Amino acid sequence: MSTTADDTGTTDTDTGTGPDTPTATAPAPAPASVARTVTDVLQPRNVLLAGMLGIGLAAAGGDWTGLLWGFLGALCAGLIPAGYIEWERGRGTWGDRHVVDRTKRAPIFFVILGSIGAGSVVMVLGNAPTGILVAMLALWVMTIGLLAVNTVWKISVDSAVASAAVSLLAVVHSPWWTAAYALTAAVCWSRVALGYHSVAQTLAGAGLGAATTVAYAFG
């Protein structure tokens, strides 16, 4: 999900034009093409799949069962919400996965909250490793924050997820994982370069994502 850089809540989606609508006559400039690749490859569902698998493995002390719990976490936090967005796109509700109009994004946040909540219940009942459960709850709290901010101001969800995954991996694995914040920076750059967000919106998202480590520490 993403939004445009302007803070008014107005988007291009009503006319069918804007950064998400490809032109038939002119190819995208090289920087825009790179930004599109970065934002697609490092979209939340992909980041959460890789991140939650790593967190689950660490939480289980390296036991392979941690990968199963990590996949459940990725399924609930990233894949199911992404599937919901694709379903709504098929119905014509949104133009693409970015959902550039922030006023239409609330249902997505509620789906994420419900999905993460359901996954957390399964983890509790299944006696999942504490680390992966706490990571799920940290993401749930982060989503509450994103929803709250989104009611009055646009904030970058992609940047928040990329930052949260890196910060959580740094906590459960090694501080060396903070070097992966270069990928978070790349996500922030791509959102600004494509015109979906302002610098402030991406930095706010990244800051909120990093704050998941606080929830993890207290967990």
Element-level helix/strand string: HHHHHHHHH
What structural category characterises the helix and strand content?
Answer: mainly alpha
Note the overall shape: globular
Strand portion, in percent?
under 5%
Radius of gyration: 17 Å
Number of strands: 0
Q: Overall pLDDT, averaged? A: 86
Count up the helices.
9
Give the biggest sheet: none
**How far apart are the termini?**
28 Å
List unreliable stretches of 5+ residues: 2-26
Oligomer: single chain
Percentage of residues in helical conformation? 55-70%
How would you explain this protein's 3D organization?
The protein starts with 29 loop residues before the first helix and ends with a helix. With 219 residues, it is mainly α. It is built from nine helices and no strands.
Secondary-structure map with pairings?
Elements: H1 30-41, H2 44-59, H3 65-90, H4 106-125, H5 130-150, H6 157-172, H7 181-193, H8 199-210, H9 212-218
Helix pairs in contact: 1-7, 2-3, 2-5, 2-6, 3-4, 3-5, 4-5, 5-6, 5-9, 6-7, 6-8, 6-9, 7-8
